[in-house]
């Protein structure tokens, strides 16, 4: 769903008339009086779990800087404002234009962008790669350099407003840089705009609260957060924001690192807008769930370490940022296709490196005292190391490490108080990695009904991932199968089905090469019918990611509708979770409830296997 925002532009202004034909693709028009109302509208749309999440579709903001700046304290040039959007609403498809200089030609890419953002497979592909994106944008704005600014840095790929991981990384890498050659970037970013500082975030959460049986304020969030049966999927985004706020507020006070209420809310809203709401599993709910588990496990294991309050704060924060910008895919697929983002991290823990880099930059930007404090008390970057530990490729290393710990004679049953004490069972660095790693895969250790909800969501996300793989298969088949490419009716079918120039460009390029090395066919393993079936499947996906209410089905109804959950859970428990949690609980017996829960969940899934 796409929105046009007009900021302080009269309804009958003739500049609107000129752009009207280009803008007919939008679903709604919103008239606003300023940038604070814009952010209020966007935040409200995001927290209401509605279709206007700014990830389906693209949205644009048209305003007149000349008319607006005179009444406002902030520097609101188009260039600056587009940076504000990237900085505080990172994964949203938003772009700002100057109504005085924008002409229809500057907006032609919108039609192409919409084709991508209305299909979740094209969209996931676009997030990760840039080799097949539209080619018609890069030169379209040269005539008037002031019309579409904000992408003036060479590394930002094109004038498209669709989110891309590489742009996200490049942008945050430049935040608060100490490199003098980037000093202009420093000037741009160091100050939080006045309209964001003065926004009343608390009332934003409380306002418009739907009249539920339980009011949002009546819930005892801290008690809710304290239980291992934390029901993240039964809570709204507003409620998750309040839970997170309360926890971080308490931990920051205990750590003597207080943060102003509004600053903490802004950080949390920025984090929410750094996760893809359209992902079924790797979204803000998962982030808050992992934070809850991390905090809970920390309180049970870290209390004997020096600075344990600040350790709990830093580790809880690492958890809420640990999957930031996650594309709902995995490292294999990102590396396999040679993306810029995988090169950036030399194909090593690419996603985890992406999450930690962007998240630490974000904290540096919005809570610099915290990073300074972290560096002063620890000789390692706990946030970076914790996030890197969540790479599942390291799973077996952690199991081996735990086995080694468990095979050495125990001095005592709890972690010892001194991180440098040679007698301790688990050193601090290892322990923080184990805690966040355990929290990240803790779904299977939750009470059965909660565990099943997560199992359902990961099943949905895997389904999308499988479609993405089919999409890659289509493309590689087009690359290698000359027989398909020689059949022009097939090309037309594909182009019609894909309904955009992505495949058209690809096929045209390959037709020109069809006479070369004709002996590639041995890698071809998909029939034409299968290919067409995959294309149809992808093409027929609904443009809106409708909220799937099946999560609220009873357990029996859920597994009857999605029977693959049973084997999926048994596979994950038997291959990864069971061995890990058994060893983890053996090393730290206060965590026995984790392996007990897994055992009883496993018994249930076994009893349901036919
Ligand atoms: Zn995760």
TrEMBL record:
Q: Which InterPro entries match?
A: HD/PDEase_dom, PDEase, PDEase_catalytic_dom, PDEase_catalytic_dom_sf, PDEase_CS
Single Gene Ontology MF annotation: metal ion binding
Names of the cofactor(s): a divalent metal cation
What are the alphabetically sorted keywords of the record? Hydrolase, Metal-binding
Protein residues bound to Zn(2+) 1: 286, 322-323, 440
Q: Which Pfam families does its entry note?
A: PDEase_I
User: What residues form the catalytic site here?
Assistant: 282 (proton donor)
Record-listed Zn(2+) 2 binding positions: 323
Q: What is its EC number?
A: 3.1.4.-
Metal-binding: is it a keyword of this entry?
yes
Q: Which GO terms describe its biological process?
A: adenylate cyclase-activating G protein-coupled receptor signaling pathway
Entry cofactor note text? Binds 2 divalent metal cations per subunit. Site 1 may preferentially bind zinc ions, while site 2 has a preference for magnesium and/or manganese ions.
Where do the PDEase domain residues begin and end?
A: 178-610
Check the UniProt entry and state the signal peptide residues, or none. none
Report the sequence similarity comment from the record.
Answer: Belongs to the cyclic nucleotide phosphodiesterase family.
Which protein, by its recorded name, is this? Phosphodiesterase
User: Which species does this protein come from?
Assistant: Henningerozyma blattae (strain ATCC 34711 / CBS 6284 / DSM 70876 / NBRC 10599 / NRRL Y-10934 / UCD 77-7)
